Amino acid sequence: MKILITGFEPFGENEKNISQEVLQYIDDSLNGVAIVKRVLPVVFNECIEIVTSLIDKGKPDAVICLGQRASYDGIAIERIAINLMDSKNADNNGFAPKDEVIAKNGEIAYFSTLPIKQIFDKINSLGIVSKISNTAGLYVCNNLMYGVLHHISANKLPIVSGFIHLPSFGKMELNSVIEAVNSAIIEIIIHIRK
Ligand code: PCA
Asked: Measured from the CA of 7, which atom of ligand 1 is nearest?
């Protein structure tokens, strides 16, 4: 079994991105499962192309995408990605889309196919602030979550995928963030092995 886990480079005013930092602390193998890690550019659509090509070459069983979000000081397990890009803030390539669809003939939205309730219950039971979030925003994280789920759905691939937002630096102990991500990976492994 293999799991691909991604983080993002810094963007906007952020000097660091916790989703990039945290990947350094995730082992290359967990419960006998290979963990492949990749940091992505905060660039609309390019991030999707990188991940879909990693999926097609590496054939992972699960794809977990991580990002940073300043608006919540806990772990936000995303439920849904929508087919829209709309942002005041430009991505790291200077692109700020206005009301643009991500995939012309794609579904309006896709639900995460990760076991989000189990992940939430586990992280919550560890006393780490967390929630299930009903919007991943309309910026690059939603773009990636939507694009990956669309690729998996359109090609009928046997892969579960979804997105988890992490709090900004300093809002939560780094150890708790690492523990939350490791717990999510373990819940996903249990889910796949069922
Ligand atoms: N957070 C941004 C994009 C990259 C990241 O870490 C977002 O929430 O869309």
From this structure: 6
What is the average per-residue pLDDT within 142-157? 98
Look-up: residue for tokens 């490791």?
182
Q: How far apart are CA 42 and CA 65, in angstroms?
A: 13
Residue 17: its pLDDT value, please?
98
Token pair 């003939």 is at which residue? Answer: 105
pTM reported for the whole predicted model:
0.98
Coil, helix or strand for 52? helix
Spacing, Cα 189 to ligand 1 middle (Å): 25
- Spatial neighbors of 15 by CB under 8 A, at least 6 apart, are none
Measured in Å, residue 91 CA sits from the centre of ligand 1 at 9
CA of 42 relative to ligand 1 center, distance in Å? 7
Confidence label for 52 from pLDDT (cuts 50, 70 and 90): very high
**Protein residues with CB under 6 Å of any ligand 1 atom:** 8, 11, 17, 19, 42, 67-69, 137, 139-141
Question: Could you give the CA distance from residue 17 to residue 31 in angstroms, rounded to a whole number?
Answer: 27
Confidence (pLDDT) at 129: 98
Under 8 Å between Cβ of 164 and 76: yes
